[in-house]
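Practice problem: Toxin-antitoxin system HicB family antitoxin
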Amino acid sequence: MASKKNFPLRLDPKLYEVLERWAQDEFRSVNGHIEFLLREAAIRAGRVPSARPAARKEEQEPDGAP
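Answer key — structure tokens:
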């Protein structure tokens, strides 16, 4: 298993409660869910070179194409 970087993260208590409920819904720990959300955001933003988001369909086909 690859090692992970440890660092303190301060969150608003209400935001933590939201993340805690969301993580439970997804059967993840809060820490694991935060990592999942950050990874997904980084991929969508094109910040992860090995995992570029798929181009939208309308960007792939010229106008009028079936």
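Discussion: Residues 30-44 form the longest helix (15 residues). Students who identified this feature from the tokens alone can consider the problem solved.
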